[in-house]
Amino acid sequence: MPIDIGISEEHRAAIAEGLSRLLADTYTLYLKTHNYHWNVTGPMFNTLHLMFETQYNELALAVDLIAERIRALGHPAPGSYKTYARLTSIPEEDDQPNAEEMIRRLVAGQETVVRTARSVFPAAEQASDQPTMDLLTARMQIHEKNAWMLRSLLES
């Protein structure tokens, strides 16, 4: 059945493409944050273990919201590691950094998600897609706050 929500197929495709990149970045950041939660050590263990848990739980909810918005626009949501690896702007790592480096990498990841969300905004704005603009605004606010909180841990 055709989708008739007041947004053209061309606009829906462009927005869904951008949201797919956002989904890939969000899922990659989720995986990285969860990994760091499991593997953090050192004097800040308890603080970071709990902070990372809060952040990965929020990211787990976010991937669902983003994927469901892609589906509402009539496009399939990507859902494989292979596809995420192709779409994400966040580098995958296979080392075990110390706590301070974990924080630095998570700040970079949070900021990457903000930039990706911001890059999708013009397409949503051009199509008057308020639900997507609301989603993007909320994601940018959350990731900017998380980056600030993480960055604050690095100050002496």
Report on the structure:
It is a single chain. This protein is mainly alpha-helical and 156 residues long. Helices cover 75% and strands 0% of the residues. It has helices at 9-39, 45-72, 81-87, 99-126, 130-152. α1 runs antiparallel to α2. The longest helix has 31 residues, at 9-39. The radius of gyration is 16 Å and the shape is elongated. 35% of the residues are buried. The model has no long low-confidence stretch (mean pLDDT 96).
The SSE order reads HHHHH
Biggest sheet statistics: none
Query: Which word captures the global form?
Result: elongated
Question: Given the structure, what is the number of helices?
Answer: 5
Structural class: mainly alpha
Return the average pLDDT rounded to an integer: 96
The number of E-state strands comes to 0
What would a concise description of this structure say?
The chain has 156 residues and is an all-alpha fold. The chain has five helices and no strands.
Topology:
Layout: H1 9-39, H2 45-72, H3 81-87, H4 99-126, H5 130-152
Helix pairs in contact: 1-2, 1-3, 1-4, 2-5, 4-5
